[in-house]
């Protein structure tokens, strides 16, 4: 079976998914839609697909699934429309920045028996997948403590930050999902600390750029997250999981692995400087997983519920910083 | 000048300091005292010093300085006695498990213009010293965030735990001191999470074995500490410090650095399995720093105030866990 | 400009190049030829190109360049035919196992002003390219000594070995080319030592499986090559280059970079176990370089002369082992 | 039992051994002799031993063993004298630069049933010992190929080089011994290549500064040695041993193991810059092994025969370079 795709949104992340879909032997990209015709045209030319309107894709008989890469504030509406249209849906995170809106959207997905996958791409990074596999294989025993280090090479534009929902909902949300993915038990409390250390403009925009979070599960397992909008040495993405029998960790990735030694010491190059080059394989893998789930009629993961859970942790972190206390989550 | 030493306490840690003193070209070990004559005799024989009573050492004209390695509950009294006797004092941490008792003790030290160094040996580990040096050299710019991983190879006996003051005052206290040493700014708030994941007996003794802590300074700098009483792979002691211009980290230490590669992968040996082999050089370096400070009449560091500050953070962490909130510290 | 390709040979390596050509935005795969129709059909179906005979490709007006992936003993003939037909030629190494045949072939290429690139793919590995770049950037000063470690995960079938020309012409030839690429000066002498340590059947087939080689240039620069047909831990491919000001090295590559730590130590997974996964990017990069050279009318490298030079070093190594002496090369 | 030592030679290496002897609980340093009274006095003062003449030490009833650290050209004579005097002898390498002189000396040792250990200290480096242990434990199966990288931080004075016997007898000799220690089978042939790349003055003195060597055993096992008198990044001392089941390697050592990351990449400090700091533990371990062998009446290793074998390989390497051929050794 070949899954026939429509792509909604032809921007930066839309291009990434266009490449992933067309590079997958079990998928074909049928059409692309974008508010900017030039953006849609570019993808259509490169991959030999059609340009259509969103309405046309919604109604199309020759399209089985859509990838939603439009602006965040359109996600929930589009999920509802395409769920009602019977299309399988891959939606970039987040579904929405508002928990209630997400819940309403998921209600529609449930009622229409929709198939929805949320784009937490890091679950599909080969290195993090191997971490999870090592846990599942029992190599470290019962998971006890998780440490996630996630630092961006540089802060986004303040304009972006203003629309982002804040660092916890925009950046840490990936780490909340990763913590849930690795802890194997739901988080019941959140303690967060936040500051503006990188750029005062971020503070003026009402956000933070440097945050630390402790998550805890019912049985006491803990995850510690350390985030910064600044890492001069590249895109710092590390995980370590401690268990009763041992520890498994994933190292950082760099474009080339050479080392130069001289009187100043031994120097390896900086890390990747962009999430798209760092997570190239993850993007291809997540679309492959989406396609495979559709083909086999299997459960789709990460689901809308996963998206909601991560957002709830982000909301709790915001409250924890404001109220200087640990916040319980349902 | 040669500094003439008396050693109070000839147990495990007393032996470490006896070796450090006798191996230092600017020091001589004159006498040792211990409640168990056999323990004192053993050190006297090995290093050619005398066995004396504590009273005799207190009164001795041929002794300039003492190293206090007796049980914790005697530390504050001995500091007061030897401060009054005009001896320079190196005291193993902690001064006492009770903040008020420490304050009273330090008052005596101040009144007698005593010289007191507290044994936070990790400040003298060559690798951690190099981390601090890199900061002082401006290699990472302004310090922003510190991550300290500190995991013991195994839990101590529950009997020990009962007398220890609890994990925050016994184990994390080293990390509180290290965080203060690296942050370069006083901590103003503590958020801690704790659980019993390793051994239920530890829980029955009223303590925890797995804890996570976030410290924050006035300007928003953060330190995250992750502690466990279990690390199957050895004594895990890592530090990383993120600054505005870069990051400096100290790797773990292992007794031998070989690697065996085969079909199972590439395997390096476990880490040191004991704090005394891990911190061999640190113990020698701290005594050397104590001696050098005495010789030059220089300020002694870490001081009693440093011991008090770390203990206050431990107390705050205990309260934070109990009250599920961030605790402010003066 | 788009370069229009014909593919000669649809076997294992032919598939690799089909993927590289079709994945390149400046190229199109027009036709494929193979003695086994099923093999050609498979590629035609997957990439939407035609199946043609070699003769038809030779005569085709819609084909600018060919990739030769047929058996080794057909390479020289095909190069001559397609050079006369005016096509740019990418030929898998080696041109031939016989130096005289290579020379005759290159004469035809010269006379017809042909464009010939020889498939020493490792020059296009991003890590080895970065090593070369570091040299070119002057980071290690003048090159003095090169060490190349190249060990296969396992020996090929003895049937293959019998047709291979022997380990020096089949396996070490890559390292001879790499040494030339890095030394920056022609090799003038070869000293080789060889043995059968892995599989006696290889010895019965008249070949070796474990060899060591020293190359030297006129000014005295040295390269040491260590080869084995066995590496239980994966495909071991390392380079280090020592210069007057420092050293640059390229580490091994592994599919996933996790580490599991427990009482047995710290274990990372084995390396890639297959040259095609190890050198995925190198294959794409070399075809891209071929296409770029055609488009710009630039000099093609590595050239037929590079193929010849590496083969001459292999021949000298064979003689060195047989005659137990250093062999001079022109 | 306590072994009573005399030290012959109070220079740089004499001091190292004085420290090793006095730091060993089973040994005592009784006397030191040196042609320069001030040098002997300094050691006598620091360690509380006597200054005596060589003759007095030879005749002394209170001395069981000597450590010979005098100039190379006195070693063979002193070994003969002290062997006749019935003292156990630890002699710094080499016994002599002339094979015949070494043989004559060993004849005297044999006739007098002397106990002689030769100072190939690297066999006692904890990391190299662990490599050997991994082999002995069967972790890599049968040894097949050994790679030894040994590069000095900088060249010695040309005056030293003139007296040194040349790079093969002065520097590579350590690697010849290490190869023998690891191969587990006697070497039967030597192929060497040499050049002057570091300093023309070394060439004028008749020596080389950059050499590559292949050793082979009867069964075909190979060891490759790469030496240079220059390594800007510190004292480069690495070993890897490949066997039928896997590989074991020993990494380089550095004084501190921190890493600084910034826009230029990840930088670790240079290696040790001096053999004495690199091999501190090795020196203590070899004296401990000597003492233990004396106490237990055990066979002493490395023996005079080991010294002779390494020297014979150095001689063969010299001939190999001169005659441009592989040299057989008995």
UniProtKB/TrEMBL annotation, chains A, B, C, D:
Keywords assigned: Oxidoreductase
Span of the signal peptide: none
Gene3D superfamilies: Dihydrodipicolinate Reductase, domain 2 (3.30.360.10), NAD(P)-binding Rossmann-like Domain (3.40.50.720)
Ranges for domain Gfo/Idh/MocA-like oxidoreductase N-terminal: 3-120
Top-level taxon of origin: Bacteria
Pfam families, per the entry: GFO_IDH_MocA, GFO_IDH_MocA_C3
The keyword Oxidoreductase is annotated on this UniProt entry: yes
Positions of the GFO/IDH/MocA-like oxidoreductase domain: 128-248
Keyword field contains rRNA processing: no
InterPro entries in the cross-refs: Gfo/Idh/MocA-like_OxRdtase_N, GFO_IDH_MocA-like_dom, Myo_inos_IolG, NAD(P)-bd_dom_sf
Family of this protein: Belongs to the Gfo/Idh/MocA family.
Family matches, as PANTHER family: BINDING ROSSMANN FOLD OXIDOREDUCTASE, PUTATIVE (AFU_ORTHOLOGUE AFUA_2G10240)-RELATED, NAD(P)-BINDING ROSSMANN-FOLD SUPERFAMILY PROTEIN-RELATED
Protein name per Swiss-Prot or TrEMBL: Inositol 2-dehydrogenase
Gene (UniProt): idhA2_2
């Amino acid at each position: 079976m070949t899954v026939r795709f429509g792509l909604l949104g032809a921007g930066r992340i839309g291009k990434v998914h266009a490449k992933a879909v067309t590079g997958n032997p079990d998928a074909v990209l049928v059409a692309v839609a974008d508010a900017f015709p030039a953006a849609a045209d570019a993808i259509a030319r490169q991959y030999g697909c059609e340009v259509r309107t969103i309405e046309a894709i919604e109604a199309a008989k020759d399209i089985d699934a859509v990838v939603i890469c439009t602006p965040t504030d359109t996600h929930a509406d589009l999920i509802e429309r395409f769920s009602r249209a019977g299309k399988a849906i891959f939606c970039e995170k987040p579904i929405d920045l508002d928990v209630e809106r997400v819940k309403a959207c998921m209600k529609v997905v449930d009622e229409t028996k929709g198939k929805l996958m949320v784009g937490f791409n890091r679950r599909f990074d080969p290195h993090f997948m191997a971490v999870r596999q090592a846990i599942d294989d029992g190599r470290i025993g019962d998971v006890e403590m998780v440490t996630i280090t996630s630092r961006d090479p540089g802060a986004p534009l303040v304009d972006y930050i203003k629309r982002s929902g804040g660092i916890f909902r925009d950046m840490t949300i990936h780490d909340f999902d990763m913590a849930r993915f690795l802890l194997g038990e739901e988080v019941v409390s959140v303690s967060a600390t936040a500051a503006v250390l990188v750029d005062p403009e971020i503070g003026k925009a009402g956000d933070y750029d440097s945050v630390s979070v402790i998550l805890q599960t019912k049985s006491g397992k803990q995850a510690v997250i350390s985030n910064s909008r600044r890492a001069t040495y590249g895109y710092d993405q590390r995980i370590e999981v401690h268990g009763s029998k041992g520890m498994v960790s994933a190292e950082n990735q760099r474009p080339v692995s050479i080392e130069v030694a001289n009187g100043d010491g031994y120097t390896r190059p900086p890390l990747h400087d962009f999430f798209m080059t760092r997570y190239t394989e993850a993007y291809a893998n997540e679309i492959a997983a989406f396609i495979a789930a559709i083909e086999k009629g299997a459960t789709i993961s990460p689901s809308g519920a996963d998206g909601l859970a991560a957002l709830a942790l982000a909301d709790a972190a915001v409250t924890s910083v404001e109220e200087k206390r640990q916040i319980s989550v349902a």
